[in-house]
Amino acid sequence: MKARVHVMLKNGVLDPQGEAVRHALGAMGFDGVAGVRQGKVIELDLEDGTSEADVTAMCEKLLANTVIESYTVEMS
């Protein structure tokens, strides 16, 4: 089984990496980008018996800084 965790900064938290990407795109001639939010995707190969609750616990304890980041979990 696999899990995919999407981690993004919460709304209202400044995203300097996203702003740097937006600025670089503008410098390259891509003027249609008004804003960029950059996040991360973590893919986990899970052993049988690992539940979505287990993955959520992983996110809460290590994979996401829940003070400034939100996350979603996809299981497949």
TrEMBL record:
Pathway: Purine metabolism; IMP biosynthesis via de novo pathway; 5-amino-1-(5-phospho-D-ribosyl)imidazole from N(2)-formyl-N(1)-(5-phospho-D-ribosyl)glycinamide: step 1/2. Its EC number is 6.3.5.3. It catalyses: N(2)-formyl-N(1)-(5-phospho-beta-D-ribosyl)glycinamide + L-glutamine + ATP + H2O = 2-formamido-N(1)-(5-O-phospho-beta-D-ribosyl)acetamidine + L-glutamate + ADP + phosphate + H(+). Pfam families: PurS (PF02700). The keyword Transmembrane does not apply. Keywords: ATP-binding, Cytoplasm, Ligase, Nucleotide-binding, Purine biosynthesis. GO terms for molecular function: phosphoribosylformylglycinamidine synthase activity. Part of the FGAM synthase complex composed of 1 PurL, 1 PurQ and 2 PurS subunits. Belongs to the PurS family. This is Phosphoribosylformylglycinamidine synthase subunit PurS. The lineage of its organism: Bacteria, Pseudomonadati, Pseudomonadota, Alphaproteobacteria, Rhodobacterales. The gene is purS.
